[in-house]
Structure formats: structure tokens, C-alpha cells
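To: structure desk
From: M.T.
Subject: fold request, one chain
Message: Could you run this one when you get a chance? Sequence is below, nothing fancy, just the single chain.
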Amino acid sequence: MYSIISQRLSTYLNINIAKGQEMNKSVATTLLAILIFLAAGTGLYFLNYDGEDENSNEVAISSSEENQGVSENSNPEVIESTLIIGSPNAKVTVIEYIDYKCPNCNKFHRGAAQKITTEYDSQVNFEIRAYPAFGPDSGRALRGAYCANDQNAFTDYHNTVMNYIWDNYYSSENYQIEIEDILTTDLLVELSGSYVADSESFRQCIDSESKNYLIDRDLLLAADDGIRGTPGFVIGEQSFIGLQPISVFNALIDRQLQ
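Reply: Done. C-alpha cells follow.
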């Protein structure tokens, strides 16, 4: 119980920081005091994940059965606002928590994700969830994903933003932009111009921050799934963080297909 409470409080703090919102100092102080008290009394730890690198043959996996607890949201818009890449009728869903500024998310997108799509075709799809953790534009770009989804353009948006970051920055190992504000509203609208039907509505959607409640939802789901970084994955009842060999994904997907 204390673990769930601490995760929710930690997530609440992270939500406001990731979206560039200011918190009332007294509220922040109170929440931090509660977290410290819980940690002292129960031996909890927060966000201290020792991630494996992409060449590792080991994977930090935990069962998501132990991390259930998010109540269903009665708002039908929340339930319908799911970012899916691939067949909606796929037997297996790979849940991926991302930040568009995350270098390893981009590497997964260009590597293992394409291999999985090629090998499993319509048997596997991807559900993308927001986990803004890098630059000040992280939340904006993830809002853009949900805004594009409203116009049935999420997959194109996702691929375009990932490719833009790779082609212009990460392919030349320019990782300084992780902390810079480069994914502006103007740029996101420009990148989306060929497949978003209503560019002005798309712009207003991003700037209005009306999709922040969906990012809030995703961050709470991440806490319940035991995800504390990007890229984070859930396949079946197993969750893990960081790039892993394709064999790890194959094993977990094949288990679900049995």
C-alpha cells in the first residue's frame, strides 16, 4: 500500500515538472515530506533504476500483476484516446512508454520495432504511451501525438517526428538537443502538414494543453506498470526498461502467441 502511495506522489511531482507547470511550494514541500517519511518507515526507494545498455543479454523484468491499481476512467474520450500503431485486432500488444527526445526510444523505433513489425506483421501492434522526461518540449510533442490521433494521423505523426529527430540530430550524435526546446508548435505543425487535415485545429490543440490529462493518465499507468524511464515496455504481464536484444522481445511475444 505504501509503495502505491509513494509511486502516485512521485508521479504527481513528475507530471508537473515534465509538463513545465509550476507547483505551489507548500504543496510540493508537503508531498516531499510524506515521501521521505514513507521511505524512512518502509525502506522504499524511488526512481533508482540501474538500466541495462542496448548490448546487454540481461533484462530487468517484473510482473505487472503486482502493479495493478489504476481505476478505469469513466470518461469515454480517455478510453478511446489510445495511440495504436499496427492492426487494432492484433493478438499481442507491445506497450511502449516514450519521450520523443529520448535517444534510445528513437533507436528502438528504427531497429527492434521495425524487425518486430516485419516478423509478426498483423499479429503484433504497439500502444504508445506518454512519458515526458527530457526537454521542455517533451510534453508538447506528446500532446501533438494525441492531437494527431484525433485526426486519424497518429502513425504518420509518430514516424515523422522520430525521423526528424534522427535525421537532424541523433544520426550525427548531437544529443545536446535532449535538453533544448526544438519541437516547437510551429515545427510540429509544419511536419504534420501533409497528413493532418485541419492544421489550425491541430495547432490549437497542441497550444491549449487540452491533452495533458491523457499524459497524466499515462504517467499513472507507468507507475502501476513499474516503469521509471524510457523506453519502457510492457508485454503481457512483464514490464522492463531500456533497450534490449531483439531476442527478449521475441521470447515475450512468442509466449503471448502460444
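Reply (cont.): The first helix runs from residue 2 to 18. Let me know if you need anything else for the meeting.
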